[in-house]
Every structure is written in structure tokens, then in C-alpha cells.
Amino acid sequence: MALSVLGFLGSNFMFLTPYGTELRMSLAEMVIMTQHRWYAWFLVGGAERDRMVEALWERITSMGEEPQNFNLVQVAPRKQRTKDELIHVEDIAGKNYRGKMMWVYDPHSIRMVVTSKQGWGERITEMVKRTGAVAGVNAGGFDDPDGLGNGFAPIGLIMSDSQVLYQDADGKQPIVGFTREGKLVVGNYKLEELRELGVKEAASFYPRVILDGKPLITSGEGGTGIQPRTAVGQKADGTVIFIVIDGRQPGWSIGATEREVQDLFLAQGVVNAGFLDGGASSELVVGGELLTKPSSRYGERRLPSAFLVFDEPDKIVVTSLGRG
């Protein structure tokens, strides 16, 4: 009887009060950004869930359409650096989150690496150790329709050393990548456009939040709630900054909004920035050690792709998904 009363009161609160309605909408936004977005039906109903998904994609598309001014970033020619000279990592914290910020001082050192396990994703700690990388973060999105957590169903486009390793659709896609000159590319692009720009390393994810030094979220907190996050930005001198936010762990870190991550980048003088896959995939590895706390029930998640940092990037050969 007590459980029935609590359930009745909770339902009334969630569905019949303004605060409860706001809470349901926020929770639905969070669920929509996971691989189980269709479960948002329980919170807002099927029609509203579909409307929210459509609105999300319209927003993402609009944020990625305007071309970048690549002249705003000037990258120095690559030079040999020690591992200690390549990166710097600091703790960051906000109202609801804890995480890490990593500076990469030479963007030429960043390579796209994919899993070496046929039919399975690979943990970033394993990728880093296998390739001898200095550090790594999760990169593009992937699908896990059966909930098995094997990390071997990438979404979008993956490029390494100018070679297409995976592509599941034609037309424009939300891209995060680096050109041969080491300039960060974030936005909606066709493959032909990426080739014209000289994009060398790339994965698919969204949204772009800073364009040519201007924030794209100017009101509200962004449309995907409080989440674990991974994002990348670049300063005018070419320095790349990765941000990884832990989340979904009360007592440690709940997560951050898109606006909070955007503002962290702006405070560092970033001129272009966008998000990589987040949620339970968000993690940072340095020297083979996992420095963040992923929220996945599997522990450190198996993933199809990662951006890794190398002191000798030209020696790394990535052949194809699951075989390099």
C-alpha cells in the first residue's frame, strides 16, 4: 500500500505539476542523447519524443552549417617533442561536474586510431598501450542496438591518414577532424569537401559550439541536458584542448551542460570547438592510465575509434576498422 501511495504521489508530481513537467522534459533530453533514446517515450510519450529528436537534429544541423574561417588558426610546423612537451593535463570542476582538461601543443601529433579487434571495440587503455601513444580520448559515435557493449558499430565517417576507414552514408555529416596542416575542422561536410580541405583524421559527432571565436550557444544551457561529455577545441596558435567530463555518478560528478563546456573553452581562448561522443563513452587515458571515471556499467567501454596523441605520429599505420 505504501509503495502504491508513493507511486501515485510521484506520478501526480511528475505529470501534474510545472516542476515535474520540467523535470520530465530534462530527463527526456538526457535519454535522447543516449543509445536508448526511444525510452524517452515513458517520460513524454511517443509524439513528443519524436518531436524532441527532430528538433535536436535540426539544431545540430544549423549549428554546423556556416563555414569556418581557417585563416584564424596558424599552426607552427611540426617539430620533435618529448612526451612531457606534448601534453599537459589539469583537473577541472564546476557546480555539478568533475573532469579533466588536456592541452596538446602540437596538433600534428593527433591521429585517429580504430579498434584492432574484428567484430569488437577496444578499450582506449588498450589502444594506447598497443600503439605506444602518449594519450587518448574517445572519438566518434557508435550504435549498440542489442546492448551488448561490444563497441563495433560506428556511426558516420572515420578517416585516418586521409584514408576512409568507415562510411555509412553519403551527403553531409557532422564531422570533427584535423587537416594536414593541423587545423581543427568542426561542422557539417561531405566527403568531397573534406578531401578539398585536406582533412587527414576525422570522426563523426556533434554539435559545434564555437565558430571563429564566437559562441553558438547564447541562451539557455544547450539542448541535451546534463551529461558526461567529451569535447575538443583549438586556439589560434594551433594548441588543441580536449575536455572530458565525468557524469551520472551522484557524489562524484553528475555531468555538464553544453553551455558549461563551451564556456570552459572560451575562457581558454578557443576559436573553434565541438563535441565528441559523450555519455558512458567519455574518458581520458594518459600513458596507459585511465584518468577519468566512465559511467558505463561495463567499466571502461569498448569503442570503435579514438583520437590518440603520439610523439612520433608518422610511424603509426591504421589500415581499416578492426584490422589495424
Describe how the helices and strands are arranged:
Elements: H1 2-16, H2 18-32, H3 41-44, H4 46-63, H5 83-86, E1 87-93, E2 98-104, E3 110-114, H6 124-131, E4 135-138, E5 157-160, E6 163-167, E7 173-179, E8 184-189, H7 191-197, E9 199-204, E10 208-211, E11 214-215, E12 229-235, E13 240-245, H8 258-267, E14 270-276, E15 284-286, E16 289-290, E17 305-309
Antiparallel strand pairs: 1-2, 2-13, 3-17, 4-15, 4-17, 5-6, 7-8, 7-9, 10-11, 10-14, 12-13, 12-14, 15-16
Helix pairs in contact: 1-2
InterPro entries: NAGPA (IPR018711)
Pfam families: NAGPA (PF09992)
Organism: Gordoniibacillus kamchatkensis
Describe the structure concisely:
Pfam families: NAGPA. This protein has 324 residues and is of the alpha+beta class.
Please describe the structure with a list of short key phrases separated by commas or semicolons.
Phosphodiester glycosidase domain-containing protein; 324 residues; 2 domains; NAGPA; globular; 25% helix
How would you characterize the overall build of this protein?
The protein has 324 residues and is α+β, with helices and mostly antiparallel strands. It has two domains: 2-63, no CATH class; 74-315, no CATH class. It is 25% helix and 27% strand. The strands form four sheets. A seven-stranded antiparallel β-sheet has the order 1-2-13-12-14-10-11. Strands 3-17-4-15-16 form a five-stranded antiparallel β-sheet, covered by helices on one side. The protein has a three-stranded antiparallel β-sheet with strand order 8-7-9, sandwiched between helices. A hairpin with a 4-residue loop joins β1 (87-93) and β2 (98-104). It holds the Pfam family NAGPA. It comes from Gordoniibacillus kamchatkensis. Residues 132-310 form the Phosphodiester glycosidase domain. This is Phosphodiester glycosidase domain-containing protein.
